[in-house]
Write a structure and sequence with these properties.
This protein is of the alpha/beta class. Helices cover 35% and strands 18% of the residues. The protein has helices spanning 28-31, 34-41, 78-89, 109-116, 133-138, 155-166, 177-181, 214-232, 234-247; strands at 15-21, 45-51, 64-65, 75-76, 95-106, 120-125, 142-145, 199-200, 203-204. The radius of gyration is 22 Å and the shape is elongated. The chain binds S-adenosylmethionine (SAM).
Length: 248
């Protein structure tokens, strides 16, 4: 398990992220690879996954109970969650507590960008039927959903959010221009990309991409972005058109 101390940030621009889950081991490989590992190596972010059981009391370290009023399944108890989050907030001046929840606001690129500018994020992952409502009312700052479907628990949802936000921390990506050609930048999808070989199974790369004319290539790519967005995502296309007609 990758455990990095976030009590004494190495630099003031370092984003500290704590993930609270019943299954932190689900994240082991994820944190050790790609951009997540790079962000930590460069001290741009510190990400730590914690087991909620660490804060559970009693002989059996119980974290869940039956819901009052009956019904299916179990709920995470409030006490270990309050104790954990109050401790994790520790020395941080500005902590932001996010509960991964199917009832939350739908996660998006602007939200990833917003999170990347925080000082300290705590992601709370639910399990079973969810968590006691008093945690949501009195401890959580924001609820985020990663889509209209139900996961077994919020750990993978937290990983999705962390993966997306980490790309927005300056210095994490090799070439930050790539953020601007990603889908959802300026409410557009991305454009088609090709690599070697020039001809594969008789399918040739569009000749414009081999022309060396950078201005024409940029123009072609922008046209492709507009066309794809219009065809595949009418909802985004509508927003883009509104924004751009206001500018004109
Ligand atoms: C089985 S779900 C509970 C679903 C809950 N009974 C409901 O209907 O809203 C268990 C946990 O998975 C996480 N989860 C499930 N779906 C999610 C989604 N779409 N986005 C973010 N988190 C999700 C939440 O943390 C949730 O507490």
């Amino acid at each position: 398990m990758l455990q990095v101390d976030c009590d004494e940030p190495a630099s003031s621009r370092m984003l500290c992220i704590d993930i609270l889950s019943l299954f932190p081991e689900m994240l082991e490989g994820f944190f050790a690879t790609s951009m997540i590992a790079k962000a930590q190596k460069k001290s741009l972010a510190r990400i730590t996954a914690h087991s909620l059981r660490q804060w559970a009391k009693g002989k059996h370290f119980i974290t869940d109970e039956r819901p009052f009023g009956g019904g299916a399944g179990m709920l995470l108890k409030p006490e270990p969650i309050f104790d954990a989050i109050e401790e994790l907030k520790g020395k941080h001046q500005h902590s932001w507590v996010v509960y991964l929840s199917p009832e939350g606001d739908l996660f998006s690129t602007p939200k990833a960008q917003e999170f990347s500018q925080k000082e300290h994020l705590i992601f709370l992952s639910g399990h079973y039927e969810g968590i006691d409502e008093r945690v949501r009312e009195h401890l959580v700052d924001e609820e985020i959903s990663i889509g209209d479907y139900i996961l077994t628990n919020g750990t993978l949802a937290a990983a999705v959010v962390v993966d997306a936000l980490i790309r927005h921390i300056p210095g994490v990506l090799g070439d930050e221009a790539s953020l601007q050609q990603d889908s959802f930048f300026d409410n557009l999808l991305s454009f088609p990309q090709y690599t070697r070989p020039e001809i594969f199974r008789e399918w040739a790369v569009p000749s414009i991409l081999l022309s060396g004319n950078h201005q024409a290539i940029q123009q072609w790519r922008q046209e492709q972005r507009l066309r794809r967005t219009q065809e595949r995502r009418p909802d985004l296309w509508k927003i883009w058109r509104q924004k751009h007609s206001e500018k004109d």
